[in-house]
Amino acid sequence: MRVGLFVTCLVDLMRPSIGFAALRLLEAGGAEVCVPASQTCCGQPAYNSGDRADTIALARKVVEEFEGCDYLVAPSGSCSGMIRTHYAELFADDPAWSARVAALAAKTHELTDFLVNVLKLDRVPGRYQGTVTYHDACAGLREMGVKAQPRALLAKVAGLQLTEMADAEVCCGFGGTFAVKFGEISSRIADNKCQHIVTSGAGAVVLGDLGCMLNIEGRLRRRGDATRVLHVAEVLAGELP
Fold first, then answer.
1. Given this model, what pLDDT does residue 226 score?
2. What is residue 196's predicted lDDT score, i.e. its pLDDT?
3. Residue 145 to residue 241: CA distance in whole angstroms
4. Which stretches of the chain drop beneath a pLDDT of 70?
5. What pLDDT does residue 84 have?
6. Helix (H) or strand (E) holding 17
7. Other CB atoms closer than 10 Å to residue 78's CB: what's the count?
């Protein structure tokens, strides 16, 4: 099984440890992992900003880089959701590219979904002593159907206890360019999320999208709160920053 790992531009630039953790987990499940060195962005920032031409160019690049793999896996519900859900409309008037996009979309997975439903991972390398709470990032939840999968995997981490926060499925306020265009609204939403995290009593919040992580961690620190913010791949692989 040849699995293409789409690292994502945010992970590559801001927190590469997530990419290495994802690689370790995929290999632990027996996958042969391919990481194209030329990969960059899925095109979502351009797409959200209405830049259709650049989005199409980036989408074509992703297809060309990964269509030879049996699967494409990303440690991000946002990027995998972009590929699986939104690429199709970009090429609706181009039959040849539409077919290629559909073929890639059909084999695109968010990381925890792939580990649970394709690799059927029965154990994970990580250990964690303490209590965590989990935030359901919007794109992973609504576009990729990711809800039970990360929780099932976290249950396999030795020493870890999961406590659910209130409104775990409610947005953190990031929303890609939303956080830039509507800063005050985003900050208020993030404050609500941070309060739910604190009220849960957990020492760390775990989630599956780096954009949400950056927004939540930034707001927590501005509030003077030292709660850890961890990607689910880091916890499962035992590669904590």
1. 96
2. 98
3. 28
4. none
5. 97
6. helix 16-28
7. 26
Q: DSSP readout, 175-241?
A: TTTHHHHTHHHHHHHHHHHHHHHHHHT-SEEEES-HHHHHHHHHHHHHTT---EEEEHHHHHHT---
Domains of the chain, first to last: 2-117 (3.40.50), 127-237 (3.40.50.10700)
Residues 94-127: pLDDT tens digits?
999 999 999 999 999 999 999 999 999 999 999 9
Q: How far apart are CA 132 and CA 204, in angstroms?
A: 5
Tell me what pLDDT residue 180 has: 81
Residue 5: enclosing H or E segment and its boundaries? strand 2-5
Quick one: pLDDT at residue 182?
Answer: 87
Using a 10 angstrom Cβ sphere, with 0-12 exposed, 13-18 middle and 19 or more buried, the burial of residue 47 is: buried
Q: Can you tell me which residue has the tokens 């409610």?
A: 170
Look at the chain and count its residues.
241
Return d(Cα 11, Cα 92) in angstroms, integer.
30
Q: How far is Cα 157 from Cα 202, in angstroms, rounded to an integer?
A: 16
pLDDT of residue 25: 98
Helices (H), 74-205: 77-81, 87-90, 95-106, 111-117, 138-144, 148-154, 178-181, 183-200
> What CA dihedral angle connects 72, 75, 77 and 79, to 10 degrees?
-60
- The pTM for the full model equals 0.96
C-beta of residue 24 within 8 angstroms of C-beta of residue 93: no
Q: Which residue shows structure tokens 């992703």?
A: 62
CB atoms near residue 104 (< 10 Å)? 22
